[in-house]
Amino acid sequence: MNGFISFVLFPSNSKAAFLASKVEDATADVRALEEATRHLKAHVTVDEIIASELYLLEGIHSDLMCFHPYKTLFGYSEDLRTYLRSKVGRDAISFSSSDRGKDANIMVSGEDLRPIHEEAWRIVEDACVSDIPLLYTPGQIGIAAMILANDELEKSRDEEQITAAAADKEEQLKTMEKSSFPRIDLRRYLTNRFRHGRTEKEQEELRIQIAKLTVMLGQLKSGDFGCGNFANLDMSAIRAVHKKLKRCKAWGEQEILKVDTKKKNKKRKLDQEE
Amino acid sequence: MRSQGRHTFLIQKGHYSRTYRTMCDYIESSHLREWLFSPELLDQCRKLANLRARRFLARSTNPSIQSGKEHSTVVSDNLNPSSATPSIQQAPTTSSSTKTNNTGPAVGGTTPTRSLLPVEYFAAGYAAKRFKLGIGNEEELDTDNDELWTSSPERGSRPLLSSDEEQLLIQFYSGRISCLIGPKADLPKCRRDIKVTATAALLFRRFYLSNSVMIHDPKALIVAVSYGCLFLTRCWLLIVDPM
Predict the structure, then answer these.
(1) Chain B closest CA to A80's CA: distance in Å?
(2) What pLDDT score was predicted for residue A8?
(3) A129: left (phi > 0), else alpha (psi -120 to 50), else beta?
(4) Which of A66, A142, A189, B149 is placed for a possible disulfide with A72 were both Cys, Cβ 3.0 to 4.6 Å?
(5) What residues contact residue A38 under an 8 Å CB cut-off, 6+ apart?
(6) Residue B211 banded pLDDT, cuts 50, 70, 90
(7) CB distance A253–B62 less than 8 Å?
(8) Which of B48, B160, B199 would best serve as a mutation to test chain A binding (most A beta carbons within 10 A)?
C-alpha cells in the first residue's frame, strides 16, 4: 500500500525552488492551462500563474508532500478479499440469496467487492475537495468511505427489492436473487482487523472516530465541510461575496494604477491641445 | 496503517555518503506531523489568516499614493513567534521605474514603489505548536475589533470579508479545480490522473489556512496549484543525510 508522494528538496530561495521544478519535465504546458482558464471564461495569464506559483510555495512552507486515500482503497479491497477467506472473516459475510448462502464454501470474489470499491472511490473524490483530508488521515478516510459505500449499496439494493416486490414483478425478483450480492459487515472487519496492539479503549475510540467520519462523508453531498463538488452551492451568495471582494482586494492594484496613469496622461494631452 | 514497499540504499563516494529512502513512510511524513488539525484549530487558523489580512488592508496605505516617496507598508503587529521569517517584505525605495511582480515594466516617469503582498505559512505545524509548545494565538484573535472591518481610507474604506465569506469562495474555487485539471477537465489537453486534482485541492486549501483571498487571487492560485501539481505525479527520492 504505497501512498503516492512527491517531495522536492531545494534551498530557501524561492527562485531556486522554481528552477528545481523545471528540472523535471513538465507534463503539460502552462499555456494549456491558460487556454483552459480562457475556456472557463476566467482568464489567467501565464505571468499571473508563474507569480502565484511562487506565492503558493511560500504559503505552504515549501511542503509539497501529500498522501491521498485512493491507494488505501486498493489496499483495503485486497486485504478484505484475503480476510473474508479466513475463518474469522466468513462470519462477516452473508448472501442475499438463500441458495448461495447455504453453501459455506462459496467465497467472496473480487467482482463482489467491485461495486463497494467504485462507490468508495466516488466518495473519496468528493472528500478530497473538502476539509476532510485536513482533519483525518488517508487510512481513516479510506475505510470510512468503504463502510459508507457498503451501507449505501445495501440500502439501494433493499429498496430495489422492495419496489420489485411491491410491483409484483416476479421475474425481476428472481433475477435479483440469482445475481445475489454479499452483505459484508465492514464494521466487524474494522474491529477484528485492527484489534492487535490496541487496548479496548483504543479500539472503542477508533470505532467512534470512524463512525463519526462516515457520517461526515455522508454529508458531503449537501456541501458540508467545504465540499465544492456539488451544484447545490448558493450562487447568489457567492456572487455577492465576489462583488465585495472585487472592491476590497489587494491583488490587481497595479492594473488600477495603470488605468489611472493612462487617464492622467490623456487629460494632460487634452489640456495641452486646448 | 503503515505503507509498505520501503527500500533503503546507501550511496558512498569517498568520505561522502548519503542514504536514499524511496517512498517516504506516512508515519514520518510532514503530512501527518504538520498538516492535520482538529475542527477547532482549523477554524482558528482561518480566523487568524482573515484577521491578519484585514489588519493589512485596514492599516496599510495604497502604494499608488506613495509615488516617489519612501514606502511605508505597515508590518503586521503580531508575527507568529514560530515563523522563521517576517511575513511582509518591504520593497526598497526608489524613484526610477521598477519591474513589478505580476505586470510588465511600470508605467509613467515617477513610478511608485510596490511592496510584495504578504505571504504567511503559520498553519504548517500549527496543531503541534499549539499542543506541544503551548504557543497559541488566542490573544491575537481576542484583540479583533470593529475598526478592522473596513479598508484604509487610502484604499477607499471598503467593507472587508469575514472568515465565513472567504470559506464560501474557497469552497467554490476548490470545486472548480476538477474542471481545470484531472480526469473530468473541460479541455482534453488538461486531462490527468485524479491524484493531480486531489493534490491541487489539498495544497490550495493548505495555502488558504495561512492566507486570505483578499490578499491573494484564488483564481490565479487554482491555476498555479494545478500547474505545480503536474510536476508531482511521480514518486521522488527522499534524501536523508545520516550525518
Answers:
(1) 15
(2) 38
(3) alpha
(4) A142
(5) none
(6) very high
(7) yes
(8) B199
